[in-house]
């Protein structure tokens, strides 16, 4: 019998912690989950859920303005931003009640405790409870899932101005007149579109030469063009020198192309990344190693201490809810069931939920080039997807990197409507060794968005065809039709 009070203690009640606790309890482990604030974590309260609700509101407003493309009447929507934010809060609460509230986990047999945990030694923690009391408990295994928070960079003058992060953005109830966003990554870009469509003037500032640095440049260019058409202003290659208060709000002073430039706005949003939460855990007492990025783990999510695991944002490896859940599954299964599972690093899907959406999975073109991997590029435009045509969402592109000989998929990217759903098909294919030929030969319903993935896969057949092979078929079978035009290497059929 174990000498410890618990089999598993999970520190953190966000996506990773909730998943870990549920799995641990499901395999019969006596489990405690500790949360310092409220269950649900960043995704429910400050990230995925509220941002997608706000994006949806902005999309509806954009569709009202452009209803004429569907044969209706264009109109300027009446936007009550306070009601929009109330709707955001309502949906957050609904998700919380349905999936995150403590009673759900207590019914599984999990003891849910609210307080701040820190290690006393490698098998013992103390919890500073909300009522001021301190509780000491021990466990056979620990799973650290304390997540991350908004990273606030060191910018001259920042302490003297008011600014927003994703942790405060969804609490404002007045629409910014001019929102200046520092950061051209997923958070900044999603919010740029949401607010510009809700009626704000929006300027995105970034020191890089383009937005969305982790995505395919060709696909990013399509998205950036759409955002610009909707009214988002981009200030790229802009090195931030300082920020200042102004009569109307805030000024961001940047150096751009060797010259100083002032960007004025009413509100400032910092979308400059995330920082792992672990300083309060007293990891030194347990001997757990960490870096500035986060807690160090191996590919089974195990720290250097054999019975202590960490997963999700606190590791600094990934900043995705789906990867937090995946890592939790790996960690708990490895620790409690002793199954040799490891993180699937080759098939991590990325998705940004703008309109059009932007997603990718697997190797990028740059990564393939660095490894000298031989590949062919297969493209298929949304303008040839009948479902996209019927719904008026023809801006987009499917781009696949695969072996010309076998059709093995190395990576895929999609920009367009429902890209986040379409990339899942490529993720499943890659995970299970399904080739472009297999995809092309699989029946897809018409007219579905997924049919675009099949038609993109069809291009493998097209590119493996040649003028010589057609001539031989004509000769062998006595066919009399014309030979297709093979002069365009990028022809799409």
What's the layout of helices and strands?
Blueprint: E1 6-11, H1 15-26, E2 31-35, H2 41-45, H3 48-65, H4 81-100, H5 102-106, E3 111-121, E4 124-129, E5 134-144, E6 148-150, E7 178-182, H6 186-198, E8 201-205, H7 217-230, E9 233-235, E10 238-246, E11 249-256, E12 259-265, E13 267-270, E14 274-276, E15 308-310, H8 321-337, E16 350-352, E17 357-362, H9 365-370, E18 376-381, H10 386-390, E19 397-402, E20 409-416, H11 419-431, H12 436-440, H13 451-463, H14 467-477
Parallel strand pairs: 1-2, 1-5, 2-3, 5-15, 7-8, 7-13, 8-9
Antiparallel strand pairs: 3-4, 4-5, 6-14, 10-11, 11-12, 16-17, 17-20, 18-19, 19-20
Helix pairs in contact: 1-8, 3-4, 3-6
Structure summary:
The protein is an alpha/beta fold. Helices cover 32% and strands 24% of the residues. It folds into three domains: 6-39 and 101-150 and 275-337, FAD/NAD(P)-binding domain (3-Layer(bba) Sandwich); 158-272, FAD/NAD(P)-binding domain, CATH 3.50.50.60; 350-477, Enolase-like, domain 1 (2-Layer Sandwich).
